[in-house]
Design a protein that fits this description.
The chain has 338 residues and is α/β, with parallel strands linked by helices. It has two domains: 2-116, Rossmann fold, CATH 3.40.50; 117-334, Dihydrodipicolinate Reductase, domain 2. The protein is built from eleven helices and 13 strands. The chain has helices spanning 2-6, 10-13, 29-37, 49-52, 70-79, 94-107, 121-131, 165-168, 172-188, 294-304, 316-334, and strands at residues 21-23, 44-46, 60-63, 83-86, 111-113, 139-147, 191-199, 211-218, 228-239, 248-255, 258-262, 271-275, 280-284. The chain has an eight-stranded mixed β-sheet with strand order 7-8-9-6-10-11-12-13, covered by helices on one side. The protein has a three-stranded parallel β-sheet with strand order 3-4-5. Helix 9 (172-188) packs across helix 11 (316-334). The chain starts with a helix and ends with a helix. The model has no long low-confidence stretch (mean pLDDT 94). Belongs to the Gfo/Idh/MocA family.
């Protein structure tokens, strides 16, 4: 689904981008994808990464493998002199994400990270609403609560890889929670003074945590859409395997003169704006993107081509910040995050 729907088509649909080559170790699969999924007949399929990286005219590489493989693959990409666009989470822990980021910095190459929700129309609309004072001149509190899986894919196996910390770095907080944390960082500024905990409350047959709670404050972030009040707080809770029957997913941003609510894990969910009394003032709706990663991939393409600088682009630095927050919450559960 990631390559066939979310991201893959965007690489040949974005202006200024062509999908020149694909690689998968499973015999025949990359050639099949190149022949059946990519228009034009010029895309080449490879089974060996070293041969793939030698493909003529290759400028940048998208890494969409499991997080536990990212470091080794990214080292090869950087050694080959290619820019990289890597799926989130970038590494299984902050230390791994930092190492990947440094590999590209040392090589003088761009590292882009796939926090695609930054580029959603609804996220950009929220930034505009905040900057125009829709909820006041300061953010005073941000809260998030998820009950349910948050739309995580490929969860039918006895032990899905997303719940195998050796492959993923932890439980669903790594795959689902990181999106929301990056979006809070992008909209409101970096999280500091983070405190958190993780537990396995409902899943005795799964080794990973299924409940995460954290609190934080905001640091200085020049990229924030609206400044935060001194002492503004953040509280987030993920209950991935709750026995509650009704899933719940809500990001709530409170300002000095109102508030804003939106689903955290939706590409097109409505954004609702309330006044100080809690009365609904606006409800904005959005179309579902055909390819949810395409908007971000277009900004990455433009950046690679030197066409424009955009504050939407997600780099290695913000991915490292997000991973540090997650590590703080998971540290006690795993007895360290190295």
């Amino acid at each position: 689904d990631v390559c066939q729907k979310k991201s893959g088509p965007a690489f040949y649909k974005c202006e200024g981008s062509d999908l020149a080559a694909v690689m998968r170790r499973t015999p025949g699969k990359a050639k099949e994808y190149a022949a059946t999924q990519v228009p034009g007949g010029t895309c080449v399929g490879y089974e060996d990464i070293d041969e793939f990286l030698k493909h003529p005219g290759l400028d940048a590489v998208y890494v969409s493998t499991r997080p536990g493989t990212h470091l080794d693959i990214c080292k090869k990409v950087a050694k080959a002199g290619k820019a990289c666009y890597v799926e989130k989470p970038v590494g299984r822990c902050a230390e791994e994400a930092e190492e990947i980021n440094k590999v590209f910095q040392d090589a003088g190459l761009k590292l882009y990270t796939a926090y695609i929700s930054r580029a959603y129309d609804r996220t950009q609309t929220v930034r505009t609403l905040l900057s125009e004072g829709a909820i006041g001149d300061k953010i005073t509190n941000v809260s998030y609560k998820l009950v349910g899986s948050g739309g995580a894919r490929d969860m039918t196996e006895d032990l899905p890889w997303r719940l195998d910390a050796e492959q993923s770095g932890g439980g669903l907080i790594m795959d689902v929670g990181c999106h929301v944390l990056d979006r809070i960082d992008y909209i409101c500024g970096p999280l500091v003074n983070v405190k958190g905990r993780a537990e396995n409350k409902h899943s005795p047959l799964v080794p990973a945590e299924d409940f995460v709670h954290l609190t934080a404050e905001f640091g200085e972030g020049t990229w924030a859409a609206l400044s935060t009040d001194k002492g503004a707080t953040v509280e987030c809770t993920w209950d991935f395997a709750s026995e509650e029957q009704t899933p719940f997913d809500e990001l709530h941003i409170v300002g000095s003169k109102g508030s804003l609510k939106m689903a955290g894990m939706s590409p097109n969910g409505a954004v609702k704006v309330y006044n100080e009394k809690g009365e609904l003032q606006q409800e904005l709706t959005f179309d579902m993107p055909e390819h949810t990663a395409q908007a971000l991939i277009q900004t990455v393409t433009n950046d690679l081509r030197g066409m424009e600088k955009s504050n939407i682009v997600s780099y290695g630095d913000n991915a490292v910040r997000t991973q540090r927050v997650i590590d703080t919450a998971l540290n006690s559960y795993y007895g360290g995050r190295e």
